[in-house]
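Limitations

Structures in this collection are predictions, not experimental determinations, and the ligand pose is part of the prediction. Treat each record accordingly. The example that follows, with 3-methyl-2-oxobutanoic acid as the small molecule, is included so readers can see exactly what is and is not provided: the inputs are given verbatim, and the output is the predicted complex.
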Amino acid sequence: MPASTPDSAQRVRIFDTTLRDGEQSPGISLNASEKLEIAHQLARLGVDVIEAGFPIASPGDFEAVRAIARQVEGPVVCGLARANPGDIDRCWEAVKDAERPRIHTFCSTSDIHIEHQLRGTREDVKGLVRASVAQSRALCEDVEFSPMDATRADVEFTAEVLQIALDEGATTINVPDTVGYAMPQEYAAFLTQLYALVPDLRHATLSTHCHDDLGLAVANSFAGVQAGARQVECAINGIGERAGNASLEEVVMLLHVRAAHTDGLHTGIDTTEIARASRLVSRLTGYVIQPNKAVVGRNAFAHESGIHQDGVLKDRSTFEIMDARTVGLEVNALVLGKHSGRAALKAALEDLGYTVEGQTLNAAFKRFKEVADRKKTVSAMDLEALVTDELRAEHSGWELEWFDVEASTRRPPHATVAVKGPDGDLTQGSFTGDGPVDAIFKAINAATGIDARLREFRVEAVTGDADALGEASVVLELGDPAAAVRTDAPGLLTGERVTGAGQAVATDIIEAAAVAYTRALSSAVVKAAALAAAPGVAVNTPTP
Ligand code: KIV
Ligand code: ZN
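Predicted complex:
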């Protein structure tokens, strides 16, 4: 990695939007401590900017952005705001305590959006952009402006709008391919035209923001960089609206591996932190990484065919263009055994980048002992899974106390569960279901008195060994959100859909499934309660 400052001409800034655009993926709902944990990992990874959230969207989003601004050192911490005074004030409130805060405001420039979404005119857009960038600049020195849906907009009108944003003091101009429609040569040509039409653009940082609807997000981002952009907006594992954003790890490794052929374009990323960031985001969001995913997939460095294996055994360069260690994919096989003590666990966790003390260390130690009693060895991957699981346990709401389930091929399985409610009371429920997992999920519905329907359910093994920990992931939807929060729920619209996601790790996959379901239920009820409590307020404001 060439050492350089962000100001060197070939240095590409990495703007991570995992916690904003990424968090808008269906079924993802991270709590504040999960977002903070991801933000700390992004800082270790060395991203230049963390887009921490959309503060006006909900009180929870606001709190999470503020906590990241206050606690995460290193990167610029940015919040998103639509082009209106309320959004911008709220965004500034959330980011202002950061070492280096940024306000990112946006307004569409495509006629499709102006007509159908904003229901306004091009003149309205110019006025909104002038006022919102000026307001942002009065609050914050670092202001980014995005003309949303730019690639489907008239380039000359977009240029006019960008000139206004620059005149009002925008320091970064981001050009979104919002619907993932552009092709690389078109996207590059669009940026080149903007440079020609707006010479002042040379004094700002030009940025890419590409969606993956046609699988071109990384190619388009790279084309943008070749056209002069020096900031790339991307997300870990490529998560984001619909098909997602450009994947951070692919953009970074493309620039890293091909630096010699791109005049030394490079980033400030510590590539050895990529795999850990990828696992953490996958685990906390419940979005599993496809095995053949570039750079971080389980098979990204695996060789199956005889010819490939033969070649790699003779010399890795025959079929490998990068080393798994460069992206941090090779982790210690064995870290601890069942006789290891609290100090060894603390040191191992510190090695993995987690500072765990006090109550959390006690809880982690208890979990470690339970697992070590059942598994012969506890690897770095297991420890990482356990610590992130402890983080998830901080969700307020229902907790699974115990379950009994009998499985048989001759009778329908019957389950009984006991759950502790938010008020500390224990209730039990039973159900005879189609399978043991179905019986448990419905028994949890019976115990909590909440009608929820399963939308997605997955179980994965944390490591490849026979006694591997199981990691379960659940997305569910509340049947009747208003009944779930037991109020007259004035803020909940009839027919409103409220979903919740939960993940859990255990040596027993049925236990992991039951805990994940209980967490998903709690998260859906918390969401429904926020909606119910705030009629007419900007809770769950539609996100861009
Ligand atoms: O895709 C998009 O246009 C966005 C903007 C808010 C930058 O996410
Ligand atoms: Zn986007």
